[in-house]
Design a protein that fits this description.
2 helices, globular
């Protein structure tokens, strides 16, 4: 009952129950003016369930990569701030539609509101989200939101198709040890720091992921000792973790968007 709520900048994942086993259905996201913005066609499992699937990535925040295609008229934003200015307080609708494309089986209102916590993402030096980087380009990490952590431990590890739980954290930055990098003194709502300096003499390429753990200052070392530097993807308190993937290209597609 009532509106669902989604923090602006978070991703929307939707599932459903009660469909005929093996039956197809569409999940649709409708904007406040009634226009469809995203759609998924899925097939129910043997129990008649549609497992959770991604319908809307980061409420349309596409960042400042050189080919990001930001377009406010299409609800595609360069930054989280732009998204908050445009979307805060708006009501959207998620619909479950039968395979005929016309019969609405279920409908749920969705209220968009500013985040009350924080998020972490790879970025340019100004805090605009990035995913693709040139071989010798500086990579920044940004903490965004009203509740920046007092301390964070950051690992940069090779990305992989499947993340095993628990996951060993193999830090790839050669100037750091296996404990990663401790960041302190973060202040919201936007704190950006240079996480991986580029080096024209040592270009790199490949897929990587930042793993960021925020911890209680007084208990940080004890927690790390207990966990032996391993991370479950959905860890229990007192740890809070996030993972952010990046790609270092072996080519430069041009200047990033601003």
């Amino acid at each position: 009952g009532g509106d669902g709520r989604l923090a602006i900048g978070d991703s929307l994942r939707v599932g459903a129950k009660g469909l005929p086993p093996g039956g197809a259905a569409d999940l649709r996201l409708i904007d406040p003016l009634g226009a469809p913005i995203a759609e998924l066609r899925l097939r129910a499992d043997a129990q008649g369930d549609l497992p959770l699937d991604l319908l809307w990535w980061r409420t349309g925040v596409v960042g400042c990569d050189c080919r990001s295609g930001a377009d406010k008229a299409s609800h595609r934003f360069s930054t989280f701030e732009e998204a908050e200015w445009a979307l805060s307080g708006t009501r959207w609708t998620v619909e479950l539609v039968a395979a005929d494309g016309a019969t609405v089986l279920a409908r749920r209102a969705l209220l968009l509101e500013p985040t009350r916590d924080f998020r972490v993402y790879a970025s340019d030096p100004f805090g605009c989200p990035r995913h693709d980087f040139a071989p010798a380009e500086d990579v920044y990490l940004t903490f965004h939101g009203p509740r920046a952590p007092r301390i964070a431990r950051v690992f940069l590890v090779p990305d992989r198709p499947a993340w095993v739980e628990p996951m060993p954290l193999a830090e790839v930055r050669p100037y750091l040890d296996t404990d990663g990098e401790v960041i302190q003194g973060l202040f919201g709502p936007l704190a950006t720091y240079l996480a991986w300096p580029g080096d024209p003499k040592a270009p790199r390429a490949g897929y990587f992921a930042f793993v960021v753990r925020t911890e209680d200052v007084e208990n940080a070392e004890a927690i790390l000792e207990i966990t032996d530097h391993r991370l479950a993807h959905l860890p229990a308190d007192p740890l809070k973790s996030t993972e952010e993937g990046i790609r270092i290209n072996d080519w430069d597609c041009g200047p990033p968007r601003h």
